[in-house]
Design goal:
Layout lengths: L3 E6 L3 H12 L12 E3 L5 E6 L4 H7 L4 E5 H7 L4 E5 L5 E8 L14 E4 L2 H11 L4 E4 L15 E6 L3 H5 L2 E10 L1 E5 L5 H21 L1 E9 L3 H7 L7 E4 L5 E9 L3 H10 L3 E7 L6
Parallel strand pairs: 1-3, 1-4, 7-8, 7-9
Antiparallel strand pairs: 2-3, 4-11, 5-11, 6-9, 6-10, 12-14, 12-15, 13-14
């Protein structure tokens, strides 16, 4: 049976979170130190550990079938490569930053100026869209130092917390795009490999849905049950079970973590008691 070849970043935060995701979807990888390739023990998958910037070309050439990669890299180097799933981790943004001492009123302030970046295609498209002409200097690594050594008047780089910019006396002035890890797919994927990928994507969706939801259990007097059910969205409908104490019921349901506190406040107001909230590992719908 063919194996699906999945590329992940060789090291760093994206690597760690990618491997954690594969573990959570039940794929066990024999990952020895300094390996460039490893096979799963229990699933037809091979994992390739590659430099993030090289992955888009490997996808285009069909050297790997899929990849967990930063969306920002895919936008910069992966034209024509499809995204099967957004994964919700390794979030960042691609931003233009200038020295804190610079008065910045808008992008036109960079007209004719030098911008140092490792994302030349992304920056050029943004400048073209805004009708601004600037000189792009391509730098790989340590972009933040460029204004301090006189190489450029501005930079464009990925930003997570903003602490690196702060340490280099820079400030964000433009956000070009927001990025997260995605599951990207080679444009030359075979039908056999697509079937394997579909199984992986199904598992990933189950994990992601579980992360976005909470399991809730509560007790309520029977005369309050319908009011409480009206508050709980559930999946199809909440589960209602009688308690040993006459006149009371236990209600079980699922709520979105984004609506959690608003829903809890409303449930309490409707008479819910003994509310328990549990994480959901996976949710298969």
């Amino acid at each position: 049976m063919s194996k699906l070849r999945i590329a992940v970043q060789k090291s760093g935060r994206l690597h760690d979170e990618s491997m954690e995701l594969l573990k959570n979807i039940g794929i066990s990888i024999d990952n020895g130190k300094d390996q460039l390739k490893a096979s799963a023990r229990n699933f037809p998958v091979e994992v390739f550990y590659l430099r993030n910037g090289d992955i888009p070309q490997y996808l285009k050439d069909g050297v790997v079938d899929a990849a967990i990669i930063g969306e920002n890299v895919l936008i910069e180097k992966g034209e024509g490569i499809g995204v099967a799933e957004k994964l919700g981790f390794s979030t960042c943004r691609v931003c233009i930053a200038v020295p804190k001492s610079m008065k910045y009123n808008g992008l036109t302030d960079l007209e004719g100026k030098r911008i140092a970046t490792s994302y030349p295609n992304t920056v050029q498209k943004y400048l073209d869209l805004k009708g601004v002409s600037a000189n792009i200097h391509i730098i790989n690594g340590s972009v933040e130092i460029a204004p301090n050594i006189g190489l450029s008047e501005a930079i464009c780089d990925i930003v997570s917390s903003g602490s690196t910019l702060f340490k280099n006396n820079l400030k964000e002035v433009e956000t070009l795009l927001k990025s997260e890890a995605v599951l990207a797919v080679s444009p030359v994927l075979s039908e056999e490999k697509q079937a394997i990928l579909d199984k992986i994507q199904f598992r990933i969706q189950s994990v992601l849905k579980g992360r976005e939801s909470k399991y809730i259990l509560l007790n309520a007097p029977n005369d309050k049950v319908q009011d409480i059910i009206n508050v709980l969205p559930g999946m199809k409908s909440p589960t209602v079970l009688p308690l040993a104490q006459e006149g009371w019921s236990s209600i079980h349901s699922v709520i979105s973590k984004n609506e959690f506190w608003d829903v809890i406040d409303e449930l309490k107001a409707k008479g819910a008691q003994g509310i328990l909230v549990c994480p959901i590992e996976k949710m298969v719908l």
